[in-house]
Fold each of these.
Amino acid sequence: MVRCDCPFCRATYEMESIDPGATIACSRCGNTFRVAGPVLHLCPDCGRKLSPHAAVCPHCGRPLTSDAAAQQENSFVNSAVREAWLRLVRWWSRL
Ligand SMILES: [Zn+2]
Ligand SMILES: [Zn+2]
């Protein structure tokens, strides 16, 4: 959940997701405005403000993004690669 405010009339919009820099037409005042980053994210469970990059809510622990799991997998792969690399370097230094 993402929240942004219309800079003209202060109407608040809550949407599933907004790209920073996206243009939004305000249905209240009719102006169009560009979303200024960083966009405020809200936890769908506890409704508290979150960092746009938070994969898990720091307040209630809810996983927030569908790619949070993918990101975790990525970092796992990265650490596995790093681990393999370090082992290789250690092996080389023994030669
Ligand atoms: Zn407006
Ligand atoms: Zn939460």
Amino acid sequence: MEELGERKNSILGGDDIQPVHLRKPPAQRKIRPYDFWRSIGSPKFVVAPMVDNSDLAFRMQTRNYGATLAYTQMLNSNSFVNSKECRSNLFQTCDEDRPLFAQLAGCEPTMILKAAKFVEDRCDAVDMNFGCPQGIAKRGRYGAFLMEELELLDDIVRTLVEGLNIPVTCKTRIYHDFDRTIRLCETLYNAGAYALTIHGRTREEKGQFICKPDWDTLKRIKDHFRRKDIPIPIIANGGIETMDDVMRCLEYTGCDAVMTSEGILENPSLFSRNITTDGIRVNQIYLAGMLVGLAFSYVTYLVGI
Ligand SMILES: Cc1cc2nc3c(=O)[nH]c(=O)nc-3n(C[C@H](O)[C@H](O)[C@H](O)COP(=O)(O)O)c2cc1C
């Protein structure tokens, strides 16, 4: 793992001592990030991208219980471009499924742009996965294994920002070294990202090494971008299990929104504290039954591509 962590050349860009984000002019965004954020309702309660889980029925269920933004699962750009079956199986949506961010993964800017073109008319933003720490991402050269390749990250995000009619956002992780974390975030910002989701754990903090997410670093990142002439929303991610966690995280970090994954998988009504809009308390069995019902009902009017 550390072999990647030690590749300082790609961080500094060969013999140039300036990091990527200081060497290139900022990418031109089409609208101000906070204008975009307001246009989708300034969401605070976000359902994470989750392979094999954040499908249309699940997204709609969480929306019914207070989620104000949802993501598709990560879509591998190569498979997505090359397989119609992959597109129709993994990207299904409907008019009520908004705001929606479609998440892509990959390492070839033009291939990722091609994949994004398939979804750009059916979602509100394209999100880049620069945070997946799994072995499959290492083998496929995507996710958190691109965190040191700042030139490439810049290239991917810029290519999307220039080639798409909708905003581009990024999801990534932190380092224990704050300067390094900021260099990563600044690269994404300068390349034109409209928002960043930061998982408050390092690439190594997974499985048996999982630990509490670092809210202090999330707060420092938020404070850093708050001071910009053109600020961007920051979404906090990691370790959110209850609505009390959501509120504490928003208050402590000052972030614009909180994203949950495992917490909302376990409890799709997390954001509404298990209460329906009619004031009825729901439990896991009821929710499981509802999810099956939703899966059937959305089959009838899926819009695949
Ligand atoms: C089942 C599952 C699937 C996931 N799939 C994705 C994915 O497709 N893209 C992504 O960026 N992160 C993915 N993640 C990571 C989550 O989005 C999130 O960053 C991580 O689980 C930390 O949040 P949590 O502590 O709320 O679970 C996945 C996590 C889980 C549990």
